[in-house]
Amino acid sequence: MLCEGALMVAAAIILSYFKLQFLLAGSISFAMIPIIIFAVRRGAGWGVAAGVVYGTLKFILGAGYAWNWASILLDYSLAYGAVGFAGLCKGRKWGLPVGAFVGCFARFIVHFISGITIYKITAPTEVIGVTVANPWIYSLLYNISYMLPNTIIAIVAGLLLTAPLKKYMRGQL
């Protein structure tokens, strides 16, 4: 499982370099998909561990932005660790698409918390052409602007990969 997890983290790192930079600092990519697949195959514990490793490496390898150590933990290690909660759908018929939703929503919650605690000092500011002074609204708008497209991509990928990965997800390969 360690080797499989390392391969999925490596795949996620590679996919993270192919992204569409969106709005202020959020981006849209396929990077979460290998972590979601691994989590749904191996369970939430292994998925969270792989997500934490991926998020930490993403920051260390220079693809990250942080204001302080707390934002490193929240926006990278814990946020991508939360993607591993997709593993709660292990063994379910529609595990990949539902797991994608669960993992993406969990990541959104961590980013939202980061926005209202750490990045609240950036408010008032403009998000999607609207000036926002409330840190809660700012965090919601900012994080949903890139997490919603990422979530849709992950769910669609989960739907498309459910049949081709059926044996793999069951451990028959």
TrEMBL record:
- Membrane listed as a keyword: yes
Q: Which organism is it from?
A: Neobittarella massiliensis
In Pfam terms, one family for this protein is: Thia_YuaJ
What InterPro entries does the database record attribute to this sequence? Thia_Transptr_ThiT
GO cellular component term, pick one: plasma membrane
List the GO molecular function terms: thiamine transmembrane transporter activity
| Alphabetical UniProt keywords | Membrane, Transmembrane, Transmembrane helix
Question: What protein name is recorded for this chain?
Answer: Energy-coupled thiamine transporter ThiT
